[in-house]
Specification:
Order of helices and strands: HEHHEEEHEH
Radius of gyration: 15 Å
Number of helices: 5
Number of strands: 5
Oligomer: single chain
Structural class: alpha+beta
Largest sheet: 3 strands, mixed
Strand content: 15-25%
Strand order of the largest sheet: 2-1-5
Distance between the termini: 18 Å
Shape: globular
């Protein structure tokens, strides 16, 4: 995702989500699709969704030890959950993060908040910070 964002000259939007996350679906259905947010996400950001409850096994030889627990991460969900916890200090979903091409935050994280206008302002603020760094 980061490589593609750099190639396209866009900031990276990380969506920490889950297949069984009710609040994630509410955000996608009632916030992402309102106030022009979906158009912003589709045109101005490289979106990467990381499913923290994905039970798909990571192939042998590609598994890593969790920097959070010291245990082997056997599923992709565990890997994304640990990534979220280790780098962003949070475990709840949804959680949205905006990064520039060097992996630097473009503002605070954004969690569940059903206000489409507030979400749009958060996106625009991150986009403005990204453009000022270019």
């Amino acid at each position: 995702g980061m490589q593609r964002a750099a190639e396209e000259g866009k900031p990276l939007f990380i969506d920490f989500t889950g297949y069984g996350c009710t609040n994630c679906r509410l955000m996608e259905e009632n916030v992402w699709t309102k106030s022009g947010n979906l158009a912003l996400l589709e045109t101005e950001f490289q979106v990467v969704s990381l499913y923290c409850d994905d039970k798909t096994a990571i192939p042998d030889g590609e598994q890593m030890i969790s920097p959070v627990t010291g245990e082997l991460m056997a599923t992709y969900g565990r890997q994304w959950s640990d990534f979220q916890s280790y780098y962003f200090g949070q475990q709840s979903q949804p959680l949205y993060i905006l990064l520039d091409h060097k992996g630097r935050l473009l503002g605070d994280s954004y969690g569940y908040d059903p206000d489409p206008e507030k979400f749009k302002q958060w996106l625009l603020c991150g986009l403005s910070r990204f453009e000022s760094r270019q």
